[in-house]
Amino acid sequence: MDEFLLYFKMGLNHVLDFSAYDHILFLIVLAVVFSFNQWKKVLWLVTLFTIGHSLTLALSAFGILKVSMDLIEFLIPLTIFITGVVNVFTAKKSSSGKENVNLIFAVFFGLIHGLGFSNYFRMMVGKEDDKVFPLLEFALGIEAAQIIIVLGILIIGTLLQNFFRVTRIDWILVTSSIVIGFAIQMMLDRVFW
């Protein structure tokens, strides 16, 4: 049980660590286009992101996949930037029109984000005989943390739209634009060429 809690907490902290806020920014731009009554769709997005994230962690933990960390560190804010830009250009459309795009973003960008943590995770489980259970325990922690963040975004969006009369379009545009600003700065800080 102690080992489960160790890896579960590591997964939680991986996402909820404000000093590594790129994960939070991606979840914000992924979820901002949805309303609270669409929570099941958002839960699927989060789960698909976790699956993509876990797949690259597994491939790395077993030594199958090795990628330049400089490239990955640049690609992570690029995924955030792309998702935010798509939000800005499609803000007037309903979120149902973005579901397929967001599903693709969730899986593909989850793969990239997982690579960003793969070296550290490989070092953590490198000496262990069983790498599958730590990976699953870590993934459960990631999933729980992502659900917390996404629920927070959905609640904030609902409160702003229902009680402060912020329009859905303004909520998406302003939130996505702020995140785009952070992503641009992160890309500039991580230029690898």
Structure description:
- The protein has 193 residues and is mainly alpha-helical.
- It has one domain.
- It contains 7 helices and no strands.
- It has helices spanning 2-16, 22-31, 39-61, 69-90, 99-125, 132-163, 168-189.
- The mean pLDDT is 90.
Supply database-style keywords:
193 residues; mainly alpha; 7 helices; globular
Task: Lay out the secondary structure.
Layout (H helix, E strand, L loop, with lengths): L1 H15 L5 H10 L7 H23 L7 H22 L8 H27 L6 H32 L4 H22 L4
Helix pairs in contact: 1-6, 2-4, 2-6, 2-7, 3-5, 3-6, 4-5, 4-7
Number of strands: 0
| Largest sheet report | none
> What value does the Rg take, in angstroms?
17 Å
Total number of helices = 7
Distance between the termini: 45 Å
> What fraction of the residues are assigned to beta strands by DSSP?
under 5%
Number of domains: 1
Q: What would the average pLDDT be, to the nearest integer?
A: 90
Order of H and E elements: HHHHHHH
Which runs of at least 5 residues are low in confidence (pLDDT < 50)?
A: none
- Structural class of the secondary structure composition? mainly alpha
Please outline what is shown here.
With 193 residues, this protein is mostly helical. The protein is built from 7 helices and no strands.
